[in-house]
Amino acid sequence: KPDLAAKIALKLKLAKPAPVVHALDDVSLTIRSGEVVGLVGESGCGKSTLGRVIAGITSPTEGDVLWKGVKQDAMSASQRRDFGLATQMIFQNPMAALNPRMTVEELIWEAPKTHRLARSGERNTYVDKYLTLAGFNPETKKRYPHQFSGGQRQRVNIARALAVQPKFLVCDESVAALDVSIQAQVINLFMELRDKLDLTYLFVSHDLGVVEHISDRVAIMYLGRIVEEAPVDEIFRRPNHPYTKALLAEIPRIEPGKHRFKPVKGELPSPLNPPSGCHFHPRCPFAMERCRAEVPLKQEVAPGHLSACHLNDA
Ligand code: SF4
Ligand code: MG
């Protein structure tokens, strides 16, 4: 189903903070329709930025985001609107996105009204539909955000995102701030909605347990580059890249959602001044002379399994 593929090949420079940062460096990631792609990496590696670029919130200074085969900067006004509506983002802090002075009903109706996705006479049934999809009793619609728990607020955000009829959800640490038991509920809701509404997900997380549970494919990011990409079982059973291996070695894996990986030994270098060659070389136990000089290219090490490491040339 390539129709919905969001294909990204970009270089991004961020103007803030003051110095120019190559937050993303020649990232290329293809997300197929109906897939859940987990994007993993230590904080500061650029995964949130990549999520925002894919969702159309941040624009790359170089490179392209393609939606249904059309480059973002070549889109007509109506294509831009469709892309904006079709890709929605669910953030980590469920309260931040909710205006505290609006009822749940107003919050959910806001965007569909603006974009004329339904007539005003349909307001009630429309709002009820999305509240129900997000697991609420429609009677809750007269309540305000502060009258809900953290998990419920996140479900209000989900109902709001769904109400513009998206195809693609970018979840940036969407369950990270919630209690573990609530995390499981929200993750199950995401999975249920995927089947009911044919959704595609990019699931940005530093929690390998959650990613293993939810993803079809996983991309591992290190300092602005995707260093490994594979079906979820491949990543967890046959990791290829030394960075991925280090991440996996650091987590005691018992239950999904329970464990966050500890940082890999050594500091994550500053993205302002990333190491030459393979960015991982200062922390890699297998680093060779070549690793300092030459950027390793992604190559296929098994069907659908890409890894960027010079060891694969040996
Ligand atoms: Fe380690 Fe070299 Fe492979 Fe980078 S390219 S992960 S430094 S062996
Ligand atoms: Mg982040």
Write structural notes for this entry.
The protein has 10 helices and 12 strands. The chain is an alpha/beta fold and 314 residues long. It has a single domain, classed as Rossmann fold. The strands form 2 sheets. The protein has an 8-stranded mixed β-sheet, sandwiched between helices. The radius of gyration is 20 Å and the shape is elongated. The two termini are 36 Å apart.
Keywords for this entry:
10 helices, 4-stranded antiparallel β-sheet, ABC_transporter-like_ATP-bd, Rossmann fold, disordered N terminus, ABC transporter ATP-binding protein, alpha/beta, ATP hydrolysis activity, 314 residues, 8-stranded mixed β-sheet, binds iron/sulfur cluster
Short description:
It contains 10 helices and 12 strands.
* CATH domain fold name: Rossmann fold
Q: If classified by CATH, what would the architecture be? A: 3-Layer(aba) Sandwich
| Count of discrete alpha- or pi-helical segments spanning 4 or more residues | 10
Instruction: Please report which band the strand proportion falls in: under 5%, 5-15%, 15-25%, 25-35%, 35-45% or over 45%.
Output: 15-25%
Secondary-structure topology with pairs:
Layout lengths: L5 E9 L6 E11 L4 E5 L6 H8 L7 E6 L2 E2 L5 H10 E4 L13 H11 L8 H11 L16 H13 L5 E5 L7 H18 L2 E6 L2 H7 L2 E6 L2 E7 H6 L4 H8 L39 H5 L5 E4 L2 E3 L7
Parallel strand pairs: 3-8, 3-9, 6-7, 7-8
Antiparallel strand pairs: 1-2, 1-4, 4-5, 9-10, 10-12, 11-12
Helix pairs in contact: 3-5, 4-5
The site of magnesium ion has 4 residues, from helix 1.
